[in-house]
Input
Amino acid sequence: MIKIFKTKNEILDYRNSKATNLTIGLVPTMGNLHAGHLSLLKNSILENDISIITIFVNPTQFGPNEDFNSYPRTLDHDLTLIEELALKMSSAKEIAVFAPTSNDEIYPENFSTSISIGPLKNILEGKIRPTHFDGVTTVVFKLFHITKPHNAYFGQKDYQQCVIIQKMILDLELPISMHIIPISRNADGLALSSRNQYLTDTEMKMALTLPKTLNAIKDAVLNNRDFLDAINEAKQDPRWDYLEVLDAHTLNDDIENKKDLVIVGAYKINQTRLLDNIVVKNVR
Ligand code: PAF
Output
């Protein structure tokens, strides 16, 4: 059963009407849903009594010259995909969609607070998009506050976002378990992303450099070869914004003696930036 809410007061009333013994799963999204988002929702449906999926293109996480205005908004299609998933899972569990019709529902006039988690927001994506993570943590905190979930589901593709939200949950002692769901990929291995649709066919092929390079570095890491060679060779291609091997838990670049690593990359094709990563556990 799917319920759709367009205002904050409606979703607050809905949430407050739910018995305290029911578990709530939250799937925050910016819409334009694809199989990656649906796998988050599927996990939430399986693991909770009620799932709330939010669809909100959050203006504060876009920089001034980024794609906020052109970001694909496909609410009707998103709702169809959610219905189809619910039917396919033959689940009788409740699904609520919170899709605010106006930015004022989240950021009323004179809104001026920002949640900022410190140094982690300044590396990798944050170096290139300096205001991005303050926008993400602020909206996610608000969505947590409005929906009061027990479990929250995020995609591994935005790995730094996951680490940052996990840190916010820890620092602010939020009573929420975070679940990071593995990356969904197309048949060629490219991580699914709403921004893939900005790419032409030729650019889609070019984009495969991203997963292929991450896999080559993973092989080097696993076979005790010097992965820096692989990184330096890859970086001859100017499309890389960054390509690094870091501690998977802290994103620190001091990885000596660290067991769990993450290989993160951002690759830019014309105006489209694509992100991907591979986690390699128990390396040592
Ligand atoms: O990952 C996203 O789609 C967004 O950053 C999120 C978490 C929904 C916040 O707007």
